[in-house]
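>> received
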Amino acid sequence: MYTLLETARAHPEAECSVREKLLSDLLDPSQAEPLPVLLLNMVTKFCAGQFSQQFPVKKALLLLWKASLLTLGPLADIHERRNAARRAAGLSPIAEDTQRVCRAMRPCSPPPPSGVDGADPQQQNLVFVMPRRGAGRKSAAASSAAAAAAAAAAAAAASSSSAGAQDPTDLADKRNEQSEQRKRLLPWQPKVSQRELQAYLHQVREKFLGARAAAAAAGDTDSLAGLPRPIHESVAVLKAHLYISLAELQMKREDEIARYPMTKGRSERVECTPAELLYRAMLPSVPQYMIALLKILLAAAPTSKSKTESINLSMELLQEELPSSLSNSQRLSTDVNRHKEVIAKSVSGFLLLLLKHLKLSHVYQFEYIAQHLVFANCIPLILKFFNQNIAGYVQNSNRLSGFEFPESLFRPDNFELSEDFASATTGCSWRNMFTCLCLARVLNKLAKAKHSRTMMLVVFKSAPIIKRALRVRHPMLQLYLLKLLKLQTKYLGRQWRKVNMNLMSCIYEKVRHRLTDDWAFANDLDARPWDFQSEECSLRNAVDRFNHRRYGLGDPALPEGYQPLDNNLSSVLSREVPLAPDFCHGGYEMWLEQEVFSTPINWDLVLQTIAY
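>> returned
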């Protein structure tokens, strides 16, 4: 099955009809359980102890990841799909692709060791010796002389080139100048959200016009009466970089449906996309699925111990007889480590793929999965995964030449492993690099724009862990790690920012800027870190209301006064009323005596009322 899915995924242009039939069968809504949900149920039962310890959990997780890749689509297509959805919603497309920008981005230099970081900044400043004034004059004179000589040489070269034919190296020099100018620019365009623009206008109106005028003009982003000219220019700059996301439109529409359920709710059209079908099938058991996946990820972490974990992932590889020779035991140890690496890669890849596609489908689907990941302690789990020697982890390659797919299909029966198979390999283990990158992106998805989850990063002391992981010189990994540091910089204090100025410079250089975000300095509103639980509760209520309205799960979305009323007489009379078991045995006669026979009824008055 794995080979079939990989063949269909690697060759999308071959046999389109067969491939479409396979895709429709994988997520067929008429089936009781689609293939990804079936595999998730198997993994959940394995974690609950209902299956044997020899259950092939690695193969099930790999098949789950590849089936999701085939049905949902790869991560490389997310950018085009998002732009298509933005065009359909009337928004401008996004020109920047994260993968393309990261390919052209140079990695930042790794931070110094922890011993240098923990030194006193005052003692570090004592190391630098101030130059003498005479030396300063000499260096200034030398620099001015060198600048004059360079200017004279440039003028001579310009005159010679203008007198004669054009030098062919001029074009190369111009290209180099353009490339240098491009390098000096920031890689991302800054953004401003609608809420940030409204908050800025409310702040300046309250400052210049008073609190009453600011409250009267709340939500108005067009009127700038009474504000000075520099404020007009700043608002124009903010509006030039205004960015409206699909999530904001979807949340706004859900608020309108909750406010006007009888009109707005009936006009909604839900597309049967693969992400929608998968979410609908996963919805009843999402908490169990997330807990099972995180349990397996915890057991597959390199810092975990098999004796202390509730799930033993190496039982699948252990044979009845233990290996007697040293080479066989080394081979088994390498195979167990490789087994855990493959499991960690498949789980992290599936979680990132699920979050990315569900956020594109609907923001509340993404928030539902993210909330259950947070409730299952996904944030401290990922921090525990990174709390190791990440630079050594991404270089440690547990490979068995001749035993990996597809080499294992073509090896002879009498194949023997060489003696130097356990030698350390130089370079990079792309399997472990992919795992670290996916986990960093998942952690960024969970904590982005969520103050309570950002405080979890601060409470669990993630800053030194992320700082150690920055030693891996991979541009995309460093980008998402710097984003995590940017979220919590304002809560780390002035002393931390003073010691880690190199990280502050890297954040300014690599990460996108929000024009009104003082990410490096905490203001009065952000100084209350424990006042954000109401935001999480309101988000959870909105997600529950969305799930019940669209899928009939959870509390009723409509109030009691807005529930539909059956006015058909025949259907009301034919409705079966549930009665208690003892009502028919003596209770019915007692009810007739108390409620009907003993109650005087003026039937003439009743008939007269009905006639009118």
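>> The mean pLDDT is 80.
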